[in-house]
Amino acid sequence: MGEMGKRKLDTGWLAARSTEVKLTGVELTTTHAPSGPDQPWMEAVVPGTVLATLVKNNLVPDPFYGLENESIIDIADSGREYYTFWFFTTFHCKLSGNQHVDLNFRAINYSAEVYLNGHKEVLPKGMFRRHSLDVTDIVHPDGENLLAVLVYPPDHPGRIPPEGGQGGDHEPVKIVDPHLVSSFFDSYKRVYLHVTTGLVNKSARVAECSLNVLVTTEVKGGFCLVEHLRTEHVSVPPGASVQYTFPKLSFYKPHLWWPNGMGKQSLYNVEIGVEVKGFGESDMWNHHFGFRKIESNIDSVTGGRLFKVNGQPVFIRGGNWILSDGLLRLSKKRYQTDIKFHSDMNFNMIRCWGGGLAERPEFYHYCDIYGLLVWQEFWITGDCDGRGVPISNPDGPLDHELFLLCARDTVKLLRNHPSLALWVGGNEQVPPEDINTALKDELKLHPYFQISTQSGNSQEDIFPLLDDPSQYLDGTRIYIQGSMWDGFADGKGDFSDGPYEIQYPESFFKDDFYKYGFNPEVGSVGMPVAATIRATMPPEGWQIPLFKKLSNDYVEEVPNPMWEYHKYIAYSKPGLVHDQILLYGAPTDLDDFCLKAQLVNYVQYRALLEGWTSRMWSKYTGVLIWKNQNPWTGLRGQFYDHLHDQTAGFYGCRSAAEPIHVQLNLATYFVEVVNTTSDELSNVAIEVSEWDLEGNCLYYKVFENLTIPSKRTVPIFEMDYPKSNNQTPVYFLLLKLYNIPDYGILSRNFYWLYLPGGDYKLLEPYKKKKVPLKITSEVFIDGSAHEIRMHVRNTSKKPDSNNLLYKNRFIERDSDGDFDVASLEAVNSRIEEKKEGGEANALRVTEVNGTEVGVAFFLHFSVHAWKPDHKEGEDTRILPVHYSDNYFSLAPGEEMLVNLSFEVPPGVTPRVTVRGWNIHTGHTIL
């Protein structure tokens, strides 16, 4: 008997345009199989789009580079045949005994004909649905199989409006779409796991099955602890599909799954297996599962949508997600980087915007791992239906039944992920009435999830009278009809999200900036670094904007055509906001422009989130930024670019969204402490120091013995400076929140500020100030993985033991994402000893020479591949890199720990470089 197993067919594919293949699908999979990438056949990208395959084979230019996308013919002009393609591969699958095999497709856009060994099957239409074909009687006895798939584009692909828009299973009985649900009692001390699964009997006789459910947790050393094992006997009639619900499994004090910043993302592995009498093991399914309960209601105080996880309110800070990649070159590795970036920014929610798609399961898996709640939208958006010139179909989609079929399939695919928080019908509009009614009905909550969990047993008393919650299509998450309804924006569907342009930083703190409790989209700038511009555009795209002075004294930015095409958003809003880059002086070239843009990015996004958090629970319940990232080489609204290099806005968000955070209210000049955790902060202190451009400490004060309640933002004191007589036009402000017993730094926040009516132009000559640095580093290497621990000190002034400023003991979160006050650990500012399982190099000390006292301003690291034959302008960056901090500043005598982690391509030697506002030549650290 052959082995039961699954094989992923994502490599070894060939592709060819259908009009260039003069053979039928039967011939391709019998007598005339293509032997390799010979005309018209080429290597294919799977998963990916037809365009991704054409780009890989240099048949069309890279659409993400410069204006090259303009030269690619649109399907509206070429016709559907031009983008109708054959895909071909071979695979080995040898059966024995009474085994069965299915050929499964995750999704095909939009319909297809499938040929296997001369046999034809037609797949029904629909981009977001899965397909499964029983090919048991078609696979070859010798195990060698020929597979050809003719993929057709959508029947009515449409035209972009002028203004644009943003393997095989072997089994006689198959496990289909299991559903896992948890219910809690006794204040989350007891939990039940509910499991329902579909079973399909493909044989011609009754299948007597032993159906097993196994729940395990992983412990140290790679071992697993069995939490539950249950076996049930099930009889499945011949050719039948049945639903079976296990008796509920009981757990006492389980480890809970929490969103990022609230606790650990504890996951259990649930495995369902079926053995058939007379056959043996038939099918196996497993999934990571987190015990958690998500509740959602409209908050009576703010009118905003309020989320609770495991009974604790969650202040939502996150962003809108478009696609991983515009050509659908989807990969597990890219997903992991993307989601970890969001965790690194201290975000706790991602909104999968309705103009995109339901990503592959790996996306949601990493949201589970890193604690990112997911707002999942279905595919209704005015960008595709009801808007544009001419106006598109206002009642779209065209095929309502197909849409609902795809929606149900998506729910079944994603519903077991603990990160998934809610379903939303559409972006800025609701689905047509029949679709909306069907989604409301089919995604209605199970009665258990309509009531808040109480400490008593009243819910458990009525629970036996209810249907098992795992028998619902979902039943555990709310369905909201649209992104501006029911507690989001104005709640009524009026266009009340946004704005989407540059703002004065202090505006975010003002009461009239945004009226409603939860803003699903507020956007701003997103210029990447200069190296990314050079890597994604030819030289004519390196020209910085023209700054056009208007009669009303505002400045209008006029970008070059390539920036315009790539959706550049200006750093000025004539009539409302003066140009924020020109505050630092007129940029001289691309490098200067992009560096000043990073300063603005940092200030803009830190202020946005701090402004929202300043009114946590009193005015707001959450905010989602438009947008997190770009699926192409866009130039707006992003925290990291398509090449995976972060902007400084990334680190502004990281600072502002800390679970425990000290901040300056830019409207009132009160210093505030934000505590989003479930624990009260006690015995903490705030240290305030202000510095001028000469390195003098103008103001120093410590506020001790503070207590900050849980889930509160508390104003502590009003800053005297700059109201005092000791004024300087530009100054630096450093805030530190300490845990008094061990001087552990809970939060650190550094501002550069100017007096009202002023600007930052005095920072331009500050570039010439040479401030000395001492950087001690150690490298840990494990295969291709590199981790670097760096201790960075501004040595321009000796530490003063009489104040807190130099008692630098850094608080770090647990490596698994846990965050609670009891688990905070103060880490000494020394390089840690060699990690287990890796190779550590000796300590290396690098000194950046300088003789002046002052702030080392806006330091940022980058990692490059060292090349002896480096060419001028060549992009040598190693990406992605995960930094514990970047774009940071150090006061005289101050020190910080910075950790870097990245993977090095084979044969490449990495080099780490530090630059800064006043370290602009670049210094190699390693």
TrEMBL record:
Q: Which InterPro entries does the UniProt record give?
A: Beta-gal/glucu_dom_sf, Beta-mannosidase-like_N2, EBDG/EBM, Galactose-bd-like_sf, GH, Glyco_hydro_2_AS, Glyco_hydro_2_cat, Ig-like_fold
Q: Which family does it belong to?
A: Belongs to the glycosyl hydrolase 2 family.
| Keywords in alphabetical order | Glycosidase, Hydrolase
The UniProt record lists the Glycoside hydrolase family 2 catalytic domain at 305-437
What is a single molecular function from GO for this protein? hydrolase activity, hydrolyzing O-glycosyl compounds
Using the record's annotation, list all stretches that form the Beta-mannosidase-like galactose-binding domain: 38-154
Gene3D superfamilies given for it?
Galactose-binding domain-like, Glycosidases, Immunoglobulins
Would you tell me the protein name for this molecule?
Answer: Beta-mannosidase
Tell me which species this is from.
Answer: Rhododendron griersonianum
